[in-house]
Specification:
Blueprint: E1 8-10, E2 16-17, E3 20-21, H1 31-45, E4 48-54, E5 63-70, H2 77-92, H3 123-130, H4 154-169, E6 194-195, H5 196-201, H6 205-212, H7 217-224, E7 229-232, E8 235-238, H8 253-263, H9 269-273
Keywords: Cytoplasm, Metal-binding, Methyltransferase, S-adenosyl-L-methionine, Transferase, tRNA processing, Zinc, Zinc-finger
Domain C3H1-type: 262-292
Family: Belongs to the TRM44 family.
């Protein structure tokens, strides 16, 4: 209902109707297929030529529906809008509860089945229904504040990461890195693990205040910096990339070569900041040891 020029893309996942859980009506189809058909029907009722496509993503729910073109000219927009209003109200009254403000009062709740597009609203309520999309519907704000630490300035994030990393590294004595390349796990300073509370106690009040305004706060920021930290059971660790398990799936040679070429897109934090450097040699590290390795 946004505008005639609006197009849409939707990737159906959870089985919900306009106003609650979607109720199945056919047993000859799978629940997923029936729900896809329902979402496609919504697009058709709204006046779209609905196209179906299958995304190349690792998910069982990967069928998408796209509406790019309309089935009617702009001059018929008012008529289609009335049709959409009737459809929405027929769907919101199809369940056990029915909001009588929209003019429906099904005594037997239609056994879960209501007329779709052809049902008529009482004349005195048609105008009221046109002023709201559906009873109780609350659209989100046009501009939503991003509160997952993603909007914090890069300089601020880098400073917090460096401070927390130094805190963990200095919690244990520095260790020699003379035989780091030999594979000795004790030759590289892995630092100490500290609780989130202990880490927070070492940060200044201004930093904590800034993080408190973000959902997840300090924990979210540390988890976002997956390259440097590992947060397990409320404790923060320096990530040791030597312990990261390689993928159990064997990839074809072409894919292995392409993924290796795509790895070096970011600089290695440990190569730049860790007192012992990176725990991995350049050819094994998924990050660039110097700008000359960036791709």
């Amino acid at each position: 209902r946004s505008s005639y020029s609006c197009c849409y893309f939707v990737l159906p996942c959870c089985f919900f109707d306009f106003h609650g859980k979607y109720s199945r009506r056919q047993s000859k189809k799978t629940q997923y297929r029936e729900y896809l058909d329902f979402v496609a029907q919504v697009g058709f009722v709204c006046g779209f030529h609905v196209e179906e496509d299958c995304l190349r993503i690792p998910s069982t729910k990967r069928v998408s529906l796209i509406g790019k073109n309309r089935t009617y000219p702009p001059t018929e927009s008012a008529l289609i809008d009335k049709q959409i209003t009737q459809f929405i109200n027929s769907r919101t009254c199809a369940g056990i509860t029915c909001d009588r403000r929209v003019g429906f009062n099904h005594k037997d709740h239609c056994d879960g089945v209501c007329e779709e597009v052809g049902s008529e609203l009482p004349e005195d309520e048609t105008e009221a229904a046109g002023t709201t999309w559906m009873p109780g519907f609350q659209p989100r704000e046009k501009v939503e504040q991003i509160r997952n630490c993603a909007s914090l300035p890069r300089e601020f994030v880098d400073e917090v990461v460096l401070n927390v990393a130094n805190l963990l590294l200095n919690a244990t004595p520095q260790k020699s890195c003379s035989d780091m390349q030999s594979g000795n796990m004790n030759s590289w300073n892995q630092g100490e693990s500290l609780s989130l509370k202990e880490v927070a106690e070492h940060l200044n009040k201004e930093t904590l205040k800034r993080l408190k305004s973000e959902y997840g706060g300090l924990q979210t920021l540390l988890k976002n910096n997956h390259q440097v930290f590992e947060v397990l059971n409320g404790r923060v660790h320096i990530r040791d990339w030597r312990k990261e398990k390689p993928s159990s799936k064997t990839k074809p040679e072409v894919k292995r070569r392409l993924s290796a070429e795509a790895f070096k897109t970011r600089l290695c934090w440990f190569f730049i900041h860790h007192p012992d450097g990176c725990s991995l040699p350049s050819e094994s590290c998924p990050y660039a040891h110097g700008t000359e390795e960036l791709r």
